[in-house]
């Protein structure tokens, strides 16, 4: 199954728009042209993106600089989507358990600690990987790596209008 990264990211941004406005987040994102497709269930990829964007918003809640940057790239065989924030960052000690179910630093009622565990499983099940880099106090970058696919976006009419 193929997902168009541009359409999927647009949906995820739409569904998290309220939260991003609430926190006052600036978004740096340019939709990829030509489109970049990945071998993944689009609904699953959207869930992963929503989880990562919601975490980024939470991490920036008290930050003076609140920028969410989304990057998409492909070398033809592998595609990467990176989600970067300028939030709290992740302590070195927490990185080993970050993707474990029920690991959370959020107050009771705010987080269950399931978002990253579920996201990790969904990306892995598509033959990809979810990784993180972080500078405590500066921010974090989560990167989704997936097999690239010719996006299933070519409609019959696209050939004549292209
Ligand atoms: N972008 C980020 N910046 C800083 N810390 C993060 C970030 N993303 C995740 N974390 C840390 O990882 C923990 C686990 O994240 P995860 O998404 O699995 O659970 P949660 O957000 O706490 O709860 P849930 O997603 O179930 O509502 C978070 O509580 C937080 O401490
Ligand atoms: Mg979460």
Overall description:
It is an enzyme of class 2 (transferase). Residues 1-150 form the Histidine kinase domain. Pfam families: HATPase_c. This protein is α+β, with helices and mostly antiparallel strands. The chain has one domain: Histidine kinase-like ATPase, C-terminal domain (Heat Shock Protein 90, 2-Layer Sandwich), CATH 3.30.565.10. The protein is built from 4 helices and 7 strands, in the order βαββαββαββα. The protein has helices at residues 5-23, 42-59, 115-125, 158-161, and strands at residues 2-4, 26-29, 37-39, 67-74, 78-85, 129-135, 139-149. Strands 1, 2, 3, 4, 5, 6 and 7 form a 7-stranded mixed sheet that branches. A hairpin with a 3-residue loop joins β6 and β7. α1 (5-23) packs parallel to α2 and α2 packs antiparallel against α3 (115-125). It binds adenosine-5'-triphosphate and magnesium ion. Magnesium ion (MG) binds next to α2.
């Amino acid at each position: 199954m193929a997902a168009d990264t541009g359409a999927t990211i647009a949906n995820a941004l739409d569904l998290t728009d309220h939260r991003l406005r609430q926190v006052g987040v600036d978004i740096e994102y340019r939709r990829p042209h030509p489109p970049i497709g990945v071998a993944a269930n689009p609904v699953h990829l959207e869930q992963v993106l929503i989880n990562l964007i919601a975490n980024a918003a939470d991490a920036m809640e008290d930050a003076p600089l609140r920028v969410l940057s989304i990057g998409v790239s492909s070398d033809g065989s592998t595609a990467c989507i990176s989600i970067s924030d300028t939030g709290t960052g992740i302590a070195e000690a927490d990185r080993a358990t970050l993707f474990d179910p029920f690991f959370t630093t959020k107050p009771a009622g705010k987080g269950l600690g399931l978002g990253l565990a579920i996201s990790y499983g969904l990306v892995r099940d598509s033959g990809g990987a979810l990784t993180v880099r972080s500078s405590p106090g500066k921010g974090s970058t989560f990167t989704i790596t997936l097999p690239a696919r010719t996006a299933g976006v070519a409609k019959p009419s696209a050939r004549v209008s292209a």
